[in-house]
Here is the input.
Amino acid sequence: MTTNDPSTHPSASTVRVVDLIRKKRDGNELSRTEIEALIQGYTRGEIPDYQVSAWLMAAVIRGLTRSETAVLTDAMLRSGVVLDLSEFSPRKVDKHSTGGVGDKTSLVLAPVVAAGGLLVPMISGRGLGHTGGTLDKLESIPGFHVNLTLSEFRRVLRACGCCMIGQTAEIAPADRKLYALRDVTATVESPYLICASIMSKKLAEGIDALVLDVKTGSGAFMKKEEDAVFLADLMFETGERMGKKVVALITDMDQPLGLKIGNSLEVAEVLEILHGEGPPDLRELCLELAAWMFLVGGAVSSLAEGKRTALQIIDSGRALAKFREMVQLQSGDLSALDHPTQLPRAKHTHQIVSPENGYVAAIDCEAMGTACVVLGGGRDKKEDAVDPSVGIVLHKKIGDPVSAREPLATIHYNSEPRAERAKQLIHESYHIAGAAPTGPRPLVRRVIPSSGGKN
Ligand code: URA
Here is the structure.
């Protein structure tokens, strides 16, 4: 483990923050010294939130250059500990998603890839806005601990090859502070700031290779494919510059992934996949991402071999066994995995039915994610508690035929007023038309670089 000595960084006192704000406001490029002073000064509490907020807003509006993005990522990465996992001989691989609705792939990928012989040190996040978070899903398994110390993290990794925890105070503390500030100052939606935030945390994990799942569509932060591609390119470049093998997949988030949205419902769907069942789109994306993790981790020599390996690991029960091992090591209750009816369950359910005959032409995926937050499955404010039992089960997805009064979705809820608002959002999010939408709906829209990182 290496810690950076703060005394080697330029002090905020040598730079006037107001000049940095003005410089970015006017569209000029900041130097390495200036960016480092800003990040180190803010992390140490020497620069107030209001000045950093102003700088962040200037950065969102003016953008950052490639060089500024690289320096910002590096400064955020070096604001804390960079894990050294060189004591472990397998290659270390992780996957990160930019956030979606019903996206529970991490819970499948960690055990599949660890069962395939690679090390998966996964540091994940909580739900953000309308999107779900891996830590909230894991915590719906009774007893499961996500707040491990770094030495406990190593112990679990050593014992079973994968471990899933939350960001600790030691890992990229600058991002923790900046992220909380961005969340409340409308400065999240900048590809440069998102790149620095994600890559600083991921590079601090001590990994060799990273698969990025960059979501695009109505349920993603990047609604337009070209914006997702821009972000993917930035993150790819940043990772490669730091000597990591990186590949980014641009994947569809025009509708929720799988059929279940909400923390314990999603764990139940993960178990279906680990049992070799589950919805085809979720299964396909899990196999695709696992194959890329095997490929960038050097465990296989082709994507096809990676998919075969992942499939075989699931079908043989090794992935489920690995998941049980990890859950037990992180104090989770195995009986809830063996009997998913023991996972937290909401008191009530209600079916939302189609108002007419037709086909599902589109789903407003962000509204669907918001409906889950409204039910209590996500947070309005950072300090809000999440209800693990609530959520939505979809019966119809894009392209499906539907008759009048046929169920589109079932909500699982504990509070009538919350359920009323969620019903309205779900009704509004389904667009029923006279004809099925035409054209292919590829789950993986593009891979960056187009060579898949083989060059
Ligand atoms: N996820 C992150 O970790 N950071 C961002 O800025 C956006 C999504």
Q: What stands out?
A: The chain is about 45% helix and 15% strand. Confidence is low (pLDDT under 50) at residues 1-10. The CA atoms of residues 258 and 281 lie 6 Å apart. The radius of gyration is 22 Å.
